[in-house]
Write a structure and sequence with these properties.
204 residues, 10 helices
């Protein structure tokens, strides 16, 4: 199961690397969960995480829209592998609960997973390239890459912050926090879907 989860993280990072600064920003904000490692006494994992942040930050300077360089499959799949692997290592070492890295990287996890499920339910070939992720729909409806990634950065920061706050909370508080996050994501997905359908109807 954990092997599948890591493999999915590899693929979803690749799926979501479709806008200037998006995957780089997710990595910088997501791997800042090294702070959770350090505060939990796991300095080695924290150092690894902050090394990723430092490396990607230098790249993001040139990848932020309008991008002058691009990540490509080699970069996105590597970051996906690291996000999944370090997340599992943190859980196995008792640094954080298993849901923690999922919540931190949920802006990518939710968009990629929900899009795949929608395409599968419609009987489409899920392995084929497409432009149906929520972030892609926003760009196709006229959002600039800059507007998109800045909005995504707010969501990413909120999720990472919530994960850090909830990490040491009681089970009841964690449950409320995760359920609230799920509701917020549901509202975002529905709102984007409605706006997308309306735009398609107007253009048709």
């Amino acid at each position: 199961m954990l092997t599948f989860a890591v493999a999915w993280m590899v693929n979803l990072f690749n799926f979501m690397d479709g806008a200037d600064g998006l995957a780089g920003g997710m990595a910088v904000i997501g791997f800042a969960y090294g702070l959770a490692s350090v505060t939990a006494g796991n300095g080695d994992l924290g150092l690894l995480s902050f090394c990723v942040v430092a490396a990607v930050s230098g790249f993001l300077v040139f990848n932020f829209p309008p991008a002058r360089i691009f990540m490509g499959d080699a970069g996105s799949t590597t970051l996906g592998f690291l996000s999944g692997t370090l997340g599992v290592l943190g859980w196995q070492s008792g640094t954080w609960p298993l849901w923690f890295p999922v919540l931190v990287f949920s802006p990518f996890v939710v968009d990629a997973t929900v899009t795949l499920l929608h395409r599968a339910l419609r009987g489409e070939k899920v392995w084929q390239a497409h432009r149906e992720h929520s972030y892609q729909k926003l760009v196709r409806m006229g959002w600039s890459h800059r507007r998109l990634v800045l909005t995504e950065y707010v969501l990413m920061t909120a999720c990472a912050g919530a994960a850090f706050v909830l990490k040491d909370a009681s089970a009841a508080v964690v449950l409320v926090g995760l359920c609230t996050t799920a509701v917020v994501y549901a509202l975002i997905i529905v709102a984007v879907g409605v706006k997308w359908r309306n735009s398609q109807a107007l253009s048709g």
